[in-house]
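Supplementary Note 3. Input sequence used for the single-chain structure prediction.
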Amino acid sequence: QDAVGSQTIEFMHENGVSAEYFEVRPDEKSAISLAFLNEQGDASYVFYKQPPHVGKRWRLPEMDADDILLFGSYYAACTGMRPLIMQALECAKKSGSIVYYDLNFRRSHLHELGALMPVIRSNFKESTIVRGSADDFEVMYGLRNAQEIYNRHIRAFCPIFICTAGAEQVTVCTPSGTYSFDVPPVEDVASTVGAGDNFNAGFVCALVWNGVKADELSAMPQTEWASLINTACAFAREACRSTDNYISKEFGLRISNLEG
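The predicted structure, written as discrete structure tokens, is reproduced below.
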């Protein structure tokens, strides 16, 4: 319940996102992250936050088979948030929702990897799709090859794996095949902050627009994966063109009219 929290809620309302399930806490400060850009628009970060934990009055929305639960980052594995994450995953499983886990494992948490790994594997197991960057898995496993990562660390827990590698390519590993897609170049990069988050948002939008169900993913042909990845990359590309770190309203309207 501070200025940053108020700005966050106001921003979400302006963009048509409900804050109904926010728990505004008067005795805590909102988390702040600072991104410092190099000449290529890539960022290094400094984080200012209190140890994350579940509040006393939290609640979750109900889910059904047409819903998509997207969760990830350190908050999905740390001890403080675990009760909320476990309940959300249980609700999603009962409803048959698609569960999309973005690992987003930062080098700053490498010293906790041993303690976090059982929880990360549990998140893999409860997910329909695991998404991570080659940088994530290089930190965790010393690997960057998507097929090797899938075979050794993902496949036993989750059937669908999406591996991004910045501006290089996106690889999708499924029980029925592995597909690689080139990432369209971005000539006018202002900032890469939020590229992964916008990729996730675009992918989820594409799932909704294409009417994809959880039981269809494992056998989905390459052409349909190409459509999903193309939309995800379009969101990420748009976000990289400004320092706002999210897509513009104009882009959102344009692509939703084309795809929706």
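Residues 147 and 256 are 32 Å apart (CA to CA). The first strand starts at residue 32 and ends at 37.
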